[in-house]
Design goal:
By secondary structure, this protein is of the alpha+beta class. 29% of the residues lie in helices and 36% in strands. GO terms for molecular function: acyltransferase activity.
């Protein structure tokens, strides 16, 4: 096969069986690939302006797939890159990336980003070879929703976007995450958090007698089907930052209450991957994901 034998086109629902066959052995030791379960809902409608899914076709074979999503006026998110095992190391991911980069550029994007599981060494290497540079890393905390979650004495919960923005702006968490937060437009995507976001999304801040001590915002609430077939409601939070362990305790208490108020049965909170932040979250929130996720980006103005 040569690069000239590869045809890049938009993915369709008719590609489902080929995509399932392509990913049937992906992440077999980690429960398998999620793509077959979500494919038909995940695929954009024909003519959609903000999303396009590309497949690489070699003869009658679907050799790879990737999706590009606009998550802001100048920001693109690339996700779910897969390449058939028989076609790896033959330039397929590069062709798919170039197609998605061109599509995003044509729509005004100046930066593109991707999230890769930290254990996925092959994907990290492929991303770097396509021009992506490392940006940051994050981890998830999973507190339990609780309408009666404890708030430390002397702390108040403020539903004030200006207060949440002020704390986030000056926080080490914002610096570590390079200003990125969860995108309300797309699950598993990050983009630059703006002050306007916090006027439109539910924002939380916690304060004691000395002033602001933490902040976060709820990016989305959605339903997901578990492995047991049960539908669960999940609330997601980002922009999580706090001053110290007691501030973390107050903030996670506020998050647990807010999640319960919207009927969530599951919660995940995006955290900067630092020893202090992760150990604080483990202390006050309990469950924390075992491994971090990496975010890489590429300059689309070049």
């Amino acid at each position: 096969m040569s690069v000239s034998d590869v045809r890049i086109r938009r993915a369709t629902h008719d590609d489902y069986d080929a995509v399932v066959a392509m990913v049937e052995d992906v992440w077999a030791d980690r429960g398998g690939d999620y793509l077959p379960e979500i494919y038909h809902d995940w695929l954009e409608e024909e003519g959609a302006e903000d999303t396009k899914t590309f497949v690489a076709e070699v003869g009658d074979d679907v050799a790879g797939i990737v999706q590009a999503v606009l998550v802001g006026p100048e920001e693109a998110w690339f996700q779910t890159m897969r390449v058939d095992a028989d076609y790896r190391r033959q330039g397929i991911s590069g062709r798919l990336n170039r197609a998605s980069f061109d599509w995003a550029r044509d729509r005004g994007a100046t930066v593109g980003r991707v999230m890769i599981f930290s254990w996925n060494v092959a994907s990290l290497a492929a991303a770097r070879s396509s021009g992506f540079e490392p940006i940051t890393e994050f981890r998830w905390a999973h507190p339990e929703p609780d309408p009666d979650a404890a708030i430390p004495e002397g702390y108040d919960v403020l539903e004030k976007p200006a207060a949440a923005w002020r704390y986030w702006t000056d926080s080490p968490a914002r610096e570590h995450l390079r200003g990125l937060g969860l995108a309300p437009e797309e699950s598993w995507a990050l983009r630059e958090l703006t002050r306007e976001d916090l006027t439109e999304l539910p924002a939380l801040a916690v304060a004691d007698g000395d002033g602001l001590r933490g902040s976060a915002y709820r990016s989305r609430v959605d339903e997901r089907t578990g492995d047991d077939g049960e539908v669960r409601t999940r609330a997601e939070y980002a922009g999580a930052a706090w001053a110290d362990l007691e501030g973390a305790r107050a903030l996670f208490g506020a998050i647990a209450r807010d999640a319960a108020a919207v009927g969530a049965s599951e919660v995940r909170v995006c955290l900067p991957e630092t020893a202090e932040t992760v150990s604080d979250a483990a202390s006050v929130a309990g469950a924390v994901s075992e491994e971090p996720d990496f975010v890489l980006g590429i300059d689309l103005t070049r």
